[in-house]
Amino acid sequence: MKALVRINIISAAAVKVLAVAMVLVMLGALSAQVFLRYAFNITLSWSEELSLGLFTWTVLLMAALGVREGFHVRMSLLIQQLPSGARLRAEQAIHFATAAIGGFLAWSGWRYFADTRGTTSAAIGYPIELLHAAAFVCGVLITLFALEALLEGRIPADEMQADERV
Known about the structure:
By secondary structure, the protein is mainly α. It contains six helices and no strands. The two termini are 33 Å apart.
């Protein structure tokens, strides 16, 4: 358990740094494209493709991080009405289902990655599997983060606060 928590702490920190870096590069590329197009009538052929790849990675990495940090939107009306023992079991079921979905995403992402090996992107010419690896990485991270929450018996903070208000 301690090893999983340590791996997840390091992974979450890396995701945060990567997400910020990718957003900055994406904004720089798109800003350069707009500026050059309108100021000098120069069109960059690579900026949209780069931004699409970075956007894909950013969204999927942040989706995985949302599983660990609990910032996804959730409907908790029914769970809040359950007694604490039943609530814990319901949360464990949710974490288990999330881990299973992450595992499926990793498996299908790996298959898609393998199926597209050897192809290149149209504008930049980078290996397209770099783009398609995002689903696999996201699935692995979702699985690891959900397993941590399952093993810890984690109940989201807003759930606990709702209990204290009653």
